Fold this sequence. Notes:
This protein has 256 residues and is mainly beta. It has helices at 60-67, 185-195, 217-222, 233-236, and strands at 8-11, 14-19, 32-37, 42-48, 71-74, 88-90, 93-94, 105-111, 119-123, 136-146, 163-169, 174-179, 199-207, 213-215, 248-254.
Amino acid sequence: MAQDLVWDQVLDGVEAAIWTPGPRCQDDVPPVYVVRADPAKIRFSTHHFRQEQLAEPLPIQEWHRRTRAAVLFNAGLFRENFAYLGLLFKDGRSLGSKRHPQWLGLFVAEPLDPGLRKARVLDLAVDLFSEAHPTYLEAAQSLMLLDRTGKIRVRQSGKRAYQTVVGEDGDGQILVMKTAEPAGLYGLANCLRVDYPAVRHAMAMDGGSSSDLLIGEELLARAEPRSRPRLWEPLVEGGRGEHIPLPAVIGLFPRK
Length: 256
């Protein structure tokens, strides 16, 4: 099961592994690359091309060169004109997008109240988030995938695409996952429920050609151990496949 994953440390507070769903899943779900981050050691920062006064969105490799983030992933779904779908907050300010009424997953980070957890996945069906007085500086909205009760929150559609999922485990660590091949959201949610029970709840952050997850090449060069193949590395090093421009990304940075 996923509890037996072999983790490779990328830097202090960030580990990576590959999860191959087992026979308990009963769904055709490909291997999943997983980055696990400890919010006590890692901070999360939203970046949007207009907020950074860029003329157009950037591919994830260009975002990495600009931000120098340790890890980057796409911040969510957007229209063909690059208009972001759902809430998106940077430094406590809305970046102009509106709350999506049906999407109830919200990734939040960097709380104003030091007593709150530094990063969370909120379920807007039960958790509150005030747009006028946000309790977190960073936020990105998308679909709720699997909630705290174990309920799958997406329908069985038959559609398959590359998927990016952001989840939270029982220790409060943030899990960023990307499928190695196209997968159905319902089947992926079911596999998380039965084969990766450490995941308490998760949201479907992105899917399709914009599904992207990158670890900086300088970190890959010195990540330990090097004594065995790191099966997760080919998908997160940014050199394979098509990388379309992304209007918004979320970066992981070591806390000072």
